[in-house]
Amino acid sequence: NLTLLQWQLHVFQWLSGMMENTNTLLATVILIIAGIYQFTTLKKSCLAHCRSPFSFLLNSWENGKQGAFNMGIIHASRCLGCCWAQMLIMFALGVMNIAGIILITVFILLEKSLPVNELLISKLAGVLLCMLGVLVILL
Question: How far apart, in whole angstroms, are the C-alpha atoms of residue 72 and residue 38?
Fold first, then answer.
């Protein structure tokens, strides 16, 4: 649960009272992990699912309330698999950083929606995140 993570970061004083990151190493690790994740097959698989939820509905339909619940859990887990690293970036940028929220929202929207090669967008983002992580630790 991200709330527990946030609480623990407050305990270690790695997040300020305004929920800004106060630990350069933490920011670096988060950015590099998020960048590397962009290149994984799990990310690719989850992104393919999120880009086309209609095929999931056609191929995995289950009737009834329990079926709807099961489908919701599967779909949510794949969407979380696609975007967890981008959400984690907020702990590097500052949890309440509006510019960071907008930037990540636009990135997720482009990655999911653009008809161009989605892997190009993911890989470009991965390179940029890794470079940003290195830049943060060097500055």
Answer: 24
